[in-house]
Design brief:
The complex is a heterodimer of chains A (274) and B (122). Chain A has two domains: 110 residues; 148 residues, Beta-Lactamase, CATH 3.30.450.40. Helix content of chain A is 64%, strand content 15%. A six-stranded antiparallel sheet of chain A has the order 3-2-1-6-5-4, sandwiched between helices. In chain A, a hairpin with a 4-residue loop joins strand 1 and strand 2. The longest helix of chain A has 109 residues. The radius of gyration of chain A is 53 Å and the shape is rod-shaped. Chain B is of the alpha/beta class. Chain B has a single domain, classed as 3-Layer(aba) Sandwich (Rossmann fold). Chain B contains five helices and five strands; from the N terminus they run E-H-E-H-E-H-E-H-E-H. Chain B has a five-stranded parallel sheet, sandwiched between helices. The termini of chain B are close together. The chains are: A alpha+beta (274), B alpha/beta (122). Chains A and B meet through helix 1 and helix 2 of A and helix 1 of B.
Chain lengths: 274, 122
C-alpha cells in the first residue's frame, strides 16, 4: 500500500514534470514562432532598405548622366559656334587669298617690262579682266600743253575720247587734286556713255605727282558693283601703273636718245671717203 | 594628276588662272595663247580639262570648242569658258556649241576651283 502510494506520487511527479516539459516546449515553440516572425520582419526591412539604397543610387546616377548630357550639349553648341566661326574665317581667308593673288599678278605684270606700249596693254588688261570695266581710257598729262591726252582705250575709240584741260571737268579735276572719283550712280550707265563724265576716275600718281588718269565709262554687264579687291586694285594701279608707265616712258626716251647718239658716233667714226 | 589647258591671250589672266589652278593638288597647267596654239598643245600633251577665253586672236574660244567637240579624240574633254561676255545669249551660245560651263570675268578663283574640281572628279 505504501508502495502503491509511492508509485502514485512518482507518477504525479512525472506527470507534473511532463506537463512542465509540455509547457516549456509550448513556450519554446511560441518563442520560436515569435523569433521567426521577428526575423521575417527584419529580413523584409533589410530588403526594403536595400531597394531604397538602390533607388537612391540610380537616382544619383541619372542625375550625373543628366549633368553629363547637359555638359555635352553645351560643348556641342560651343563646337558648333566654333565651327561657324572657322567657316566664316575660312571664307575670309579665301577672299583675302583671292585678293592677294589678283594684286600680286597685277603688280608682277605691271613691272614685267620696260616697253611703254606693253605696260599700257597690261594696264588695259588689268582694268578689263580684274576690275571688269567695259569702256575706259588711259589719259596721260602732256606737260607742254597741260592737257590730258588719251593714249590707250578699250571698248571706245581713242578718237572719241577728248583731250581734257588739267583741272577741268571730272577727269581734269581728278588729275589736279590727285583724288579718285567714284560716281554716286556707280551702276552701269550703258547706252549713255559720255567721255566727259566717267563713272570712275583714278589718278595715276608717283608720290603726289599725278602723271595721268584712268577714266572708266562703263562696266561689264555682269559687274554689278565694286568689291573690296577692286578698290585695292585701284590703289595699286594708282601707284604701280604710274611708276611702270613713267619708267617705261623714260626708258623708251633714253633708248631713242641712245640710238641717236650711237648713230651720230658711228657716223663720226666712219672714215671720210675720198 | 589633272592636266589643265589654259587658253588665254592675256598674260595677266594666264598667270592668275595658273595661280588658282596650282591650288588643285597635283595639277599641271599648260598654257596656250589662242585656239590654234591650244590645238597644238592638245596634240602633244594629255589634257583633262580646257579653260578657254572667247575673244582671242587667230582662233577664238567658240571655234576652238566646236573643233574639240567635233574631234573623236578630244570630244569628251570638259571645257569651261572664261570670258568678259556676260550676256545671257552669249552664255547660251557657248553652251549650245558644247562648252560645259561658262564663267564671266572678273572671275572668283574659289568658284573656278570648285567648277574644275567638279569636272575632274575631285
Amino acid at each position: 500500500m505504501e508502495r502503491e502510494t509511492s508509485i502514485g506520487k512518482k507518477a504525479d511527479e512525472f506527470l507534473q514534470m511532463f506537463k512542465k516539459g509540455e509547457e516549456f516546449t509550448q513556450d519554446l515553440l511560441k518563442e520560436n514562432e515569435r523569433l521567426r516572425f521577428k526575423l521575417a520582419q527584419l529580413e523584409e526591412a533589410v530588403e526594403r532598405s536595400g531597394d531604397e539604397a538602390k533607388i537612391r543610387l540610380y537616382e544619383e546616377r541619372i542625375k550625373i548622366t543628366e549633368d553629363e548630357l547637359n555638359s555635352l550639349k553645351e560643348r556641342f553648341r560651343q563646337v558648333e559656334e566654333e565651327n561657324k566661326d572657322f567657316a566664316a574665317k575660312y571664307v575670309e581667308v579665301e577672299d583675302e587669298n583671292n585678293n592677294l593673288a589678283n594684286l600680286y599678278v597685277a603688280s608682277y605684270q605691271l613691272h614685267s617690262t620696260l616697253d611703254f606700249n606693253e605696260v599700257l596693254r597690261i594696264v588695259l588688261e588689268i582694268v578689263i579682266n580684274l576690275i571688269g570695266a567695259e569702256k575706259f581710257a588711259v589719259l596721260l598729262i602732256e606737260e607742254k600743253t597741260n592737257e590730258l591726252i588719251p593714249v590707250g582705250t578699250e571698248g571706245i575709240s581713242i578718237a572719241d575720247v577728248p583731250k581734257v584741260k588739267f583741272g577741268e571737268g571730272i577727269v581734269g579735276t581728278a588729275a589736279k587734286e590727285g583724288e579718285s572719283y567714284f560716281s554716286e550712280n556707280m551702276h552701269n550707265n550703258r547706252g549713255s556713255i559720255s567721255a566727259e563724265n566717267p563713272i570712275v576716275c583714278i589718278p595715276l600718281k608717283i608720290k603726289e605727282h599725278v602723271i595721268g588718269v584712268i577714266a572708266i565709262y562703263s562696266l561689264l554687264i555682269q559687274k554689278e558693283k565694286f568689291s573690296n579687291v577692286d578698290y585695292e586694285l585701284f590703289n595699286l594701279l594708282a601707284g604701280h601703273a604710274a611708276t611702270a608707265i613713267f619708267s617705261s616712258r623714260l626708258y623708251t626716251q633714253s633708248e631713242r636718245k641712245l640710238t641717236t647718239i650711237q648713230s651720230f658716233l658711228d657716223m663720226l667714226k666712219e672714215k671720210p671717203r675720198r | 594628276m589633272p592636266n589643265i589647258l589654259v587658253v588665254e591671250d592675256s598674260p595677266t589672266m594666264r598667270q592668275l588662272i595658273g595661280f588658282a589652278m596650282k591650288r588643285i593638288a597635283g595639277s599641271k597647267v599648260i598654257e596656250a595663247t589662242d585656239g590654234v596654239d591650244a590645238l597644238k598643245k592638245l596634240s602633244s600633251e594629255k589634257v583633262d580639262i580646257i579653260l578657254a577665253d572667247i575673244n582671242m586672236p587667230v582662233m577664238d574660244g567658240l571655234k576652238l570648242v566646236s573643233l574639240v567637240r567635233g574631234s573623236p579624240i578630244y570630244k569628251d574633254i570638259p571645257v569651261i569658258m572664261i570670258t568678259t561676255e556676260g550676256a545671257e545669249e552669249d552664255r547660251k551660245r557657248a553652251l549650245a556649241i558644247g562648252a560645259n560651263a561658262y564663267l564671266p570675268k572678273p572671275i572668283q578663283t574659289q568658284e573656278l576651283i570648285k567648277l574644275v574640281n567638279g569636272f575632274i572628279g575631285k
